[in-house]
Amino acid sequence: MSSLDLPAGTYVTLARAVNLDKGGRTGALLMRSRMLATIAGATSIVATYDDGPDYPHRRAGLTERGHLDGGVRLVNLFEDYRGRDRSAVGSGRSDLPRLSGYETVTTDHPDGSLYATHYREPGSDADVVVDYHRPDGSVFLRWPATEGQRYCLVDHDEKVVKRWRHRAGLLRHWLAELVPSGDVFVVTDSRYSMPTLLGIEDPRFHVLELFHNPHTKAPHRWDSELRNGYDDILDRVAEMDGLVLLTARQRADVARRFGDTENLFNVANPVVLPELPDPLPERETARFVMVTRLERQKRVAFALRAVARARRDEPGIRLDVYGDGSMRPFLEKRVRELDLTETVTFHGYDPAARDRVQTATAYLMTSNFEGYPLATLEAMSRGCPVISFDITYGPREQITDGVDGFLVDDEDVEAVAERMVRLVRDPSLAAKLSDGAYQKAAAHDPESFVREWAQVFRTVKAQKARRTRLGAARLRRARLRREDAGTWSYRARLTLAGSGPAPTADGSSVTLDVFGHDDGQVVSIPLVEPDGRRTLRLRGRLAVDELAAQLGTQPVTVRVTAVWHNSSWRSVIAHGRLTDAGLELVEGEPPDGPEGAAAVGS
To answer: What PANTHER family does the annotation carry (predicted)?
Structure first.
């Protein structure tokens, strides 16, 4: 079997919408779908469920730009059901209930026919229910916007074929119809779509989530507070066939918090090396560039400050910014305040922006956080080195400081300005970093990317038969005690109740984890080698001198973590402090532990 071979089946990416003015996440999912099709020969589908009626236009635009190469199909739930003939919809028995007492507003399809009827309370502009129409005027779908109504699939005679209480039921039904036979590997790049997939009971379906951003809030440690929307998803990792992270660092952070289960994977974004002109055009000395959404996350104001500072030493420095967003008025005002109107140019959204990078001295990355940014890889693929803040996650994995770009401390505007000036004054350094950037991008080649995804899909398929469902875990006869000044011991019995193969050393473990509150460092001590029994005898020792050598002196929390293939269980058993005099522990959770301590021990 070739390392590029995929398991037989259909490969679906589920997204709410795909738009022409795509962002990084949309670009990444389209690229993955395209590469699976063109390199591995996969049957690849991008499935969306927004009600936009202009999918023929979007499809044509994306095809023209090369985003749907290789036979990738872009299908939309509304477009699909609107265009089905009678036999493909089925027949209903009961009439679609008529709605009364509402004001109605209609919208037309681009083809001129009626597309939607919006039902609203008198005097309100908020939809209660929306009926969507076929070209002949009949309703094909009823979509409630509030509680109390059902989602209804409707036949050509306006009889209800099927009803659902929740949108997720409709989406699951559609996906099953979309791929009626064979294995289906579904990847969603949005945490808001995953709950829909987790409800699929058809064993043909293998569901995976891909995170494009950090899952924690600042300071983005593994034990920091979770960002909105991530807690519900991460609490259900056991139900997924796979959770894919863009960096090994983020995978490790998830594993530290929720257990190192076997359904956690790491695949970085790739980049397609462009065909560069021969000879290469001269780089414009002192021209820097950004290709980014003008949103709060991107912190473009830091780049403006760096440019203003760098111009004190090199007045010829200028900055081109490609992209648009809600922060543009604020940033334009900031440009005026910093007297940079002749220095900084906002070009807006430009499909060819990547090519504008080719002649720049360097690319500036000032984001608050990222996952594994494509924009920087695309810049490096054109020989443009990147000057970036060292943020979570991505830049540290992409940039080797002084070899293919510069990595500086987060928010260190002075350091960014100094690196800019250095590149302007030292053309040989700029040329060296340019060569390094191109070589780094070349290491992110599409074939390696597909090879890694193929391994993920093969692993997911192979692990299906040994997936577990942990019903409960029970600690009994637990005893944590001080043996002497330098040693603490722990003994307990842990019973894992649920379905799946008995825990063995292949895929299962139980550890005693000690983590520091100040720096987040973790020391793990194995408690048992699972041998097939559901009740495990746990035994372990904490050597104070070894802990102190790794953690120093700081408050600590002690936790038991059990991993059972795709399932995990965690329980905080003690807290205390490492001091020069030794280790002091008190049983139970810390009353005022670090942010996220309660979640860690849940």
So the answer is: GLYCOSYLTRANSFERASE
CATH 3.40.50.2000 residue ranges for the chain: 10-81+171-266, 287-444
Q: Classify domain 10-81+171-266 at the CATH topology level.
A: Rossmann fold (3.40.50)
pLDDT tens digits for range 266-280: 999 999 999 888 787
Q: How far is CA 107 from CA 57, 112, 115, 308, in A?
A: 18, 10, 6, 49
Specify the 3-state DSSP secondary structure of 15: strand
Rounded Cα distance between 338 and 340, Å, is 5
Query: Could you tell me the pLDDT band of residue 504, with boundaries at 50, 70 and 90?
Result: very high
Q: Is 576 exposed, middle or buried (0-12, 13-18, 19+ CB in 10 A)?
A: middle
CATH 2.60.40 fits 468-600, yes or no: yes
Q: Does the pLDDT value for residue 23 go beyond 80?
A: no
For residue 434, what are its two tokens?
A: 């340019």
Token pair recorded at residue 253: 């952070």
Helices (H), 84-166: 86-89
Residue 596: its pLDDT value, please?
Answer: 37
Assign 316 to helix, strand or coil: coil
pLDDT at 58: 95
pLDDT of residue 1: 64
Length of the chain: 602
The domain 287-444: what is its CATH number? Answer: 3.40.50.2000
How does pLDDT run across 535-553, given as a tens digit for each residue?
999 999 999 999 999 999 9
